[in-house]
Specification:
Blueprint: E1 6-10, E2 16-21, H1 22-31, H2 34-45, H3 47-69, H4 71-108, H5 115-122, H6 125-147
Antiparallel strand pairs: 1-2
């Protein structure tokens, strides 16, 4: 990749010590820069914290690795999620089917609902339950708006 040229290094008597790879000299030049020395000082001062963080990260990595590779745990989590989601999906399908059926019925019946029809509907327990819910819901929304 990079061409490495070798240079002779002379000691204080002018004798050749040994050839040194140019990249090593580049590293030494980098280490002589004041900003690099300051960064190294900060790193050395924080080595205990860094060692503690690396230990914690290593433990976390090991735990995650064990969890990810544990087939039994993955199947248990999958089963738990399915048990939670399946009833919700079934309930949503039931509500959607009821809404579609109600829509179909309104398309077939073209009769108008008069005052006496409304009064008759008010006696239906489901209508009463829905009206109580609507009233309680509106009260809660009103209270929330007053708190703001």
């Amino acid at each position: 990749m990079s061409e490495t040229s070798k240079q002779a290094v002379l000691d204080n008597r002018g004798a050749e010590v040994q050839p040194v790879v140019r990249e090593q000299l580049d590293v030494l030049d980098q280490l002589m820069k004041p900003e690099v020395q300051e960064s190294l000082t900060v790193l050395v001062e924080n080595l205990p914290k860094l060692a503690e963080m690396v230990t914690l990260l290593t433990k976390t990595y090991d735990i995650v690795q064990n969890v990810v590779t544990d087939k039994v745990l993955i199947e248990d989590i999958k089963g738990g999620v399915e048990e939670f989601v399946k009833p919700i999906g079934e309930k949503a399908k039931g509500l959607a089917a009821a809404a579609i059926e109600a829509s179909d019925r309104t398309q077939v019946e073209a009769s108008t609902v008069g005052l006496f029809g409304i009064l008759k509907m008010l006696k239906d327990p489901q209508v009463q339950k829905t009206l109580r819910f609507a009233q309680a819901f509106l009260e809660v929304v009103g209270e929330k708006n007053q708190q703001r």
